[in-house]
Amino acid sequence: MKFINFHYISLFKENKNVLKLALPIIVELILTVGIGYINQFMFASFPEGTNAIGQVNQISNIFIVSFSVLATSSLILIAQLRGAHNESGIKKIYPLTLFLNAILGLLVAIILISITPFIFDWMQVDINIIPYAKLYLYVTAPSLIFYSLNQAFSNFLRANKRMIEPTIISIFMGLINIVIVAIVLWGIPNLDLDGKIIGVGLATFISRFLSLIISYIFFKVKVKTKISLKELKPFPSLLLKRQLKIGLPTAGETLSYNLSQFVLMIIINYSCSVLDQNLRTYIMTFTSIIYLFAQGVGLAMQVIEGTLLGENNKEGANKIVYEVGRMSRFISFFLSLIVLAIAYPVFSAIMAPAIENPTINTEGVSLMYCGIASLICLSINVLLEQGRATNLVYVKGLETAGDIAFPVIMSVSTSWLFTVGLSALLSIACNLGIYGAFIGACLDECIRALAFYIRWKKGNWKNKNLIKDI
C-alpha cells in the first residue's frame, strides 16, 4: 500500500504542470455541478418542477453538443499552431469560430422552440409534467445563442492557457443564477408553479447573457488579440475544413452519447414511476462530481498535448496521455467510494418530499426503498466511473492527435448496443427499472474504455498531422 501511495504521489508531482492548468477548470466544473445541486435542493419541495427541468435538460444537451464542433476544434488547432509558431493561422480561427457558432446557436434555439409542442408527448413524459417542461423550454431555448458564443470564448481563453478566467465567469454565472432562483422560489409570495418555472428559466437566460459579456471582456483584456472579420478575406476554407474534420466527428461522438441518453430517458419514463425518475435524476446529478477531475485534466492535457504535437514531440504526447489516464482513474475510484458511502442517508433525505407527495409516490414506497435503490445504483457506478475516466482522457488524446474517426465509430456502436439496447432489455423486458439502465451504461463505458486504450497504445495517431499546409 505504501508503494502504491508513493507511486501515485510521484505521478501527480511529475504532472504538476497539467494539474496547474487543470485546477481552475476543475473548480469551474465543480461550481457548475454545485449550481445543479443547489437548484435540485431548492426545487426539492416542487418534484414536478424537478422532473420537468430534468426532461428539458436531456433534450437541450443533445443540441448543445453542436456548439463544440468548432469551439473544441479551435482549442486543438490553436494549441498546435502555437507550438508551430503560426500566429497568422491563430488570428483566423477566432472570427471564423464565433461567426459559425452564432449561426449554430440561433439555429438550435429555433429548432427547440419548434419541437416544444410535441416532443414531450413523444418522450412519454407524465401528463402532469408536460406543461411545466414546455414552459421551461420556451424560456431557456433563446439563451442558447449566448451559451454557444460563450463556449467559443472559453475555449479561446483555455487555448491561450488562461484557465482561471472561465472559472471566474462560472462563479459569477452561478451566483446570479442562485440569487434569482432563490428570489423566485421564496421571495415572491403566492407565486404558482408556472411562475416559479418561468423565473428559474429567466435565471438561466440572464446568467448566460451576462457570462457572454464577461467572457468577451476577459478575452479582450487577457489575450489582447483583436478579432476582425477582415481575417476571413480571403475565406480560410482550408482552416474551416480542418476545424470541421476535428469538430464534426468529435461532436458526432458526443451527439451519439447524448442521443443514447435521450432514448434512455424515454425508456426510463416508460418503465419507471415518476418517483424512480426523480431518484435517477438526483443520482446522476451527484455522480457528475466524480468524473470532473478526469474532465478537467483531460481538457488541460489537450492544451499541452497539442503544443507538444505542434513541436513534433510524439513521445512527450504519448507520456502525458498515459499518465493523465492513470491519475484520472485513481481519483474517480476514490470519489466513487465516497459517494457510495454517503448514499443511503443522503438520498433518503433528498427524496423525502417526493415520498410524501401522493401525486409522485403513487406506489406508496418508503424512504428505505430510496436508500437501498441508491446503494445498488452507486455500486454499479463504481465500475462505470473507471470506464468513464479512461474515456474522457483517451478520447481527448486521440482527437487532439487527429485520430478522430475511431472514437466516433466505437461510441456510436457501444452507446446504442449497451446504453440503449441492453438497458431497454433489462429495464423493460426484465423489469429491472433504473438498475437495468445503470448496468447498460456501465458496460457501454467500460467496453469503450478498453477499445480507446488499445487504440492509443497501437499508435495510429502518430501518423496524423492536423496543421499541415495551414
Can you lay out the helices and strands and say which pair or pack?
Blueprint (H helix, E strand, L loop, with lengths): L1 H13 L1 H27 L4 H18 L3 H16 L3 H36 L7 H11 L3 H16 L4 H24 L5 H31 L13 H35 L2 H14 L4 H19 L3 H37 L1 H5 L10 H35 L3 H25 L4 H25 L12
Helix pairs in contact: 2-8, 2-12, 3-5, 3-6, 3-10, 3-11, 4-5, 4-7, 4-10, 4-12, 5-6, 5-7, 6-9, 7-9, 8-9, 10-16, 11-13, 11-15, 12-13, 12-15, 13-15, 15-17, 16-17
Description of the structure:
- With 470 residues, this protein is mostly helical.
- 82% of the residues lie in helices and 0% in strands.
- It has 17 helices and no strands.
- Helix 2 (16-42) runs parallel beside helix 8, helix 3 packs across helix 5 (87-122) and helix 10 (237-271) packs parallel to helix 16.
- The longest helix is centred in the last third of the chain and has 37 residues, at 314-350.
- The chain is globular, with a radius of gyration of 22 Å.
In short:
By secondary structure, the chain is mainly α.
Q: CA-to-CA gap between the ends? A: 50 Å
| Overall morphology | globular
Radius of gyration: 22 Å
Q: What is the chain-wise order of helices and strands?
A: HHHHHHHHHHHHHHHHH
How many strand elements?
Answer: 0
Mean pLDDT: 86
Structural class: mainly alpha
> How does the major sheet shape up?
none
The low-pLDDT segments are none
Number of helices: 17
What percent of residues are in strands?
Answer: under 5%
Percent helix, as a range, is over 70%
Oligomeric composition of the shown chains: single chain
